[in-house]
Amino acid sequence: MSPPASVSSALAAAPVVAHVVRGGFVESAHHGTAVVTNPDGSIDLEIGDASGPVFPRSSSKPIQALAMVRNGLATDGALLSLACASHSGEDFHLEGVRAILAGAGLIESDLQNTPDYPLDEAARTDWIAAGRKRESIAQNCSGKHASMLATCVARGWDLGTYRNPDHRLQVAIRGTVRELTGSEPVAEALDGCGAPIHAVPLSGLARAFGRIAATRVGPEARVAAAIRAYPEFLGGTGRDVTALIRGVDGLIAKDGAEAVYAVGLADGRGVAVKVADGGARARTVLLAAVLRRIGVTDEAALAALENQPVLGHGEPVGSVVAVGI
């Protein structure tokens, strides 16, 4: 039997940050960690222990895309936003992935990300009704993988092994993660899409997003500009991350699996949250509470994050609410 894995302090020391309230009664509680970093990287606000490492999951994608741009990825605008995306699999997303591949002389079969159905409910229903099976292009990470391949074409790197941790692309990404977070990754594993993911302090994730959001020239500025201009390519129609980026001037953001969310503000502050149990219903509520506390006041954008109703017989009978923020 394998020995138990060590538990990050970002999880073990996480306080209660959200209640699930049904009919005025607290039914469940979520523990979590949150951090806000200043433009110089120092910590402004900390809930729990933000020095503990976490896998950022898809919140890493803007950092990964930055490494690609630094290594020759030539896309901008919507297609660069798609490189940072966990897209919904809507038609315009899939057309964009095909455009990235075609621009590098590649085809869909070159993609090595895990086949799946589209995230968007309507797109998934139509896909299945058309008799289509899970495909790599429909999976939410296909924009990232197409961009990884395009970067390899630009640098003359091997395409067949681009997901390998020792591939030159993945080594470059690891170096960019180290640089922007200010931390050496303490663990590396395969993400759900099949590419490597690196565990870094939650505070380091916030610092990385603050830096990307505040940089005015160069590759960081290209990535931030693409996210701000084309948030629907980063997320999709009806997604809270899309509404948040549209609603708050200068903000960039990226949601991630296992209840991670990262934000960069135009003034260089960074925000990162992690719900300890991985429960997605609490992560947006926690993020909204932290953003309110530091002075972000766009009600429409925050409301999109806070809209986590508790249902009874299909009707709202309560909600998920932040506590202790």
Any overview of this molecule?
It is a single chain. This protein is α+β, with helices and mostly antiparallel strands and 325 residues long. Helix content is 40%, strand content 20%. It has one domain (9-322): Beta-lactamase (3-Layer(aba) Sandwich). It is built from 13 helices and eleven strands. The strands form two sheets. Strands 1, 2, 3, 7, 8, 9, 10 and 11 form an eight-stranded antiparallel beta sheet that branches. A hairpin with a 3-residue loop joins strand 7 (252-256) and strand 8. Helix 2 packs across helix 7 and helix 12 (280-293) packs antiparallel against helix 13. The longest helix is centred in the middle third of the chain and has 14 residues, at 142-155.
β-strand number: 11
Number of domains: 1
What is the typical, i.e. mean, pLDDT?
A: 97
Largest sheet features: 8 strands, antiparallel
Per CATH, the class reads Alpha Beta
| Rg from Cα | 19 Å
Unreliable residue stretches: none
Range of helix content: 25-40%
- Beta-strand portion reads 15-25%
Computed structural class: alpha+beta
Q: In angstroms, what separates the terminal alpha carbons?
A: 40 Å
| CATH-derived architecture | 3-Layer(aba) Sandwich
In N-to-C order, the SSE pattern is HEEEEHHHHHHEEHHHHEEEHHEE
CATH topology: Beta-lactamase
Q: What is the helix tally?
A: 13
Instruction: Tell the overall outline.
Output: globular
